[in-house]
Write a structure and sequence with these properties.
about 260 residues; alpha/beta; Rossmann fold; 2 domains; 10 helices; binds magnesium ion
């Protein structure tokens, strides 16, 4: 990175493909987070994964050696819940992380389509046809439609698995309604993460151009693309929008960023 990078008030860091891959920390990522904090830069972690609570994600990171509190982590579940009003009766088609975000927001869990204000979809490994029936009927009866994220697929331990977007699209297909999406690349997840950072210039660091980079760039943030996840060096050269920075990994990106101020 030539010359001087702007001073950032805060950095939002994607988890999968940046801090860890599967159940292994990516080399140097823990030390990079510490170096950012030591330089007085606020750090938030952001993930589209709505199946885990922030506490569960913090536990995973702590297990990998990161020094992190649940409030340092913004999930698409918590971001989606921020789109609800306390007291809303919410039908959740999703897992524990999404239900916990809804009840933490002061909403009620609903399963009767006639008594539902909002249908909220996420990844649901226990999806049944009956859940799709009830979601469809609640939406046709006028409930709001919110989705944690629209990811089509994600890398699982043993291959590619269908993502939360598959369930969202099933209900869109059945009803002709469109969901409001909280997760990357839509603005809500970025904005709720930013609300916990100091005011000032922000940088998003991620491994996926179409979500991490495109979503943050649309908000006017600077962006850093790392090559430890989904995007390879060849794709990085053609990335649209072009990231502000491209680095082999989080450690290299942070080193360059901080060196340019040394
Ligand atoms: Mg990622």
């Amino acid at each position: 990175m030539a010359g001087s990078a702007p001073a950032y008030a805060g950095v939002v860091i994607d988890l999968d493909g940046v801090c860890y891959r599967g159940d292994a920390a990516i080399d140097g990522s823990r030390a990079a987070v510490t170096a950012l904090r030591d330089a007085g830069i606020g750090v938030m972690f952001a993930t589209n994964n709505a199946t885990r609570t922030p506490e569960q994600s913090a536990d995973k990171l702590a297990h990998l050696g990161f020094d992190v509190a649940p409030d340092d982590i913004m999930t698409s579940a918590v971001a989606a819940a921020a789109l609800l009003e306390p007291g809303d009766r919410c039908m959740v088609i999703g897992m524990h992380g999404l239900r916990a975000a809804v009840t933490d927001r002061g909403c009620e869990l609903a399963d009767d389509p006639a008594q539902t204000d909002v249908v909220l979809t996420g990844l649901d490994r226990d999806l049944t046809y009956d859940k799709l029936v009830r979601g469809t009927r609640a939406l046709l009866a006028g409930a709001r439609f919110v989705a944690s994220n629209a990811d089509r697929s994600f890398p699982d331990a043993d291959g590619i698995s269908p993502g939360a977007g598959v369930i969202m699209v099933a209900l869109e297909t059945a009803t002709g309604r469109a969901a409001q999406v909280a997760g990357k690349p839509e603005p809500t997840l970025f904005e709720t993460a930013a609300s916990r950072l100091p005011d000032g210039r922000l940088l998003m660091i991620g491994d996926r151009v179409e979500t991490d980079i495109a979503g943050a760039a649309a908000l006017g943030w600077d962006t850093g693309l790392v090559l430890t996840g989904i995007t390879g060096a060849d794709q990085a050269r053609d990335a649209d929008p072009a990231p502000t920075y491209v680095a082999d990994d989080l450690a290299a990106l942070v080193r360059d960023l901080l060196d340019s101020h040394a």
